[in-house]
Structure formats: structure tokens, C-alpha cells
Amino acid sequence: MIWLMGALHVNSGTELAWVVFGLCAQLMFTARFIVQWIASERARSSVIPLAFWYFSLVGGVMLLAYAIYRKDPVFVLGQTLGVAIYSRNLWLIHASR
Predict the structure, then answer these.
(1) How many domains does the chain have?
(2) N or C terminus: which one in the chain shows less Cβ crowding within 10 Å?
């Protein structure tokens, strides 16, 4: 366990938990591309399924929380804008139904 903490550049269990959370957030965010790719392959056309926007929102919120914890202003700014865009797209999709 100590070698893992050293490899991840963390000094405590709390830091390790946040790094694991950040990695899970990145996996959630990456899942949106996999969902979009599979949907496009099935349709033989570029499509953006509803699940893409949900994965984007959840992954973005998780990454924003991680960025806030790490106090990274560049990362916070980027994720804040993304979360706003994903939320608006979901709002527009649900409002049109």
C-alpha cells in the first residue's frame, strides 16, 4: 500500500481516496465516448445518444469535485463550463419531449 501511495504522489489515506475518486470520475467521463462510439457504429452514422449527456454530466461533476479538492483553477474552470453545457443539453432534450 505504501508503494502505491508513493507512486500516486499522495501522503494520506484521504489523498489516496481522492485520487481513486478522480480515477473513477475519469472512467465515467471516458465511458461517454464508448457509448457514443457504439451507438454510431450501430447506426452507421454519427449519433449522440442520451446516455452520452448523462455520462458527461456525472463524469464532469465528479471531475469538478476532484478539481476543487485539488485546488486546480484551470481544471475547475474547464469542468465548470462543461457541466453547464451538459446540463443545458439535457434540459433542452427533456424540454423538447
Answers:
(1) 1
(2) C
Spell out the per-residue pLDDT of the chain, length 97, in tens. Answer: 666 667 777 888 888 899 889 999 999 989 999 999 999 999 999 999 999 999 999 999 999 999 999 999 999 999 999 999 999 999 999 999 8
Give the pTM: 0.83
In angstroms, rounded to a whole number, what is the distance separating the alpha carbons of residues 18 and 25? 10
| Residue 19: domain span | 2-95
Closest CA to 70 of 79, 81, 82, 83: 79
- How far apart CA 25 and CA 20 sit, in angstroms, is 9
